[in-house]
Amino acid sequence: MRALPFCLILLLLAAAAPALAQAPAQSPPAPEAPPAEAPSEGTDTLPAELTQIAPADREAREAAIRETDPQPGQYQYLPAGRRDPFVSLLVNVGPSTGPKTRPPGMAGFLIQELALKGIVKDAVGFIALLQAPDGKTYFPKVGQRFYDGVLVAMDAATVTFRQEVTDPLSPVKTREVKKSLYPSEEARQ
Predict the structure, then answer these.
(1) Which pLDDT score is estimated for 26?
(2) Is residue 137 within 8 Å of residue 130, measured between CB atoms?
(3) Which CATH number, 3.30.70.360, 2.30.30.830, 3.40.30.10, 3.40.640.10, labels domain 105-188?
(4) Fewer CB within 10 Å: N-end or C-end of the chain?
(5) Residues 133-164: pLDDT tens digits?
(6) Which helix (H) or strand (E) holds 123?
(7) Hey, how many other C-beta atoms are within 10 angstroms of the C-beta on 154?
(8) What Rg value do the Cα atoms of the chain yield, rounded?
(9) How far apart are CA 46 and CA 59, in angstroms?
């Protein structure tokens, strides 16, 4: 009994389809685009930022710009010196388009990835025992370079790093990071 009304609706739609197809579709006229000027020969058609990049990186950068350029009628963000609010702060901001590869060993670790497991004193000074995310323990001395900073000081209970701040809008470019053998002391500071 319920199938009958459904069948009637389908028959009415089928009968009305040819009439709807013959009706002229009214759409607003498309706006006329201004004619594009053809670049004259001998002029550089690349954006100013691409002319300063090495030729090997230029092709990849051009492809990235073409992919991210807004299409006609699409919203375009104009920063005017401000940060784009829709870009993650966790993503590195820099001139390269691809992900940076880290160097091997201690020079490739972020300071926040390291865990202080001990400090040993030898004849010259202190040596830290830092456990890295790869599960290995490393023995850096003062002056050791890491991916985002340098080990600048060490005493019997703490290790101090000078970390480079990557936020382009931050007024400070470096900050001091201390790691303690005793976490209760870190909370007091």
Answers:
(1) 56
(2) yes
(3) 2.30.30.830
(4) N
(5) 889 999 999 999 999 999 999 999 999 999 99
(6) none
(7) 21
(8) 31
(9) 11
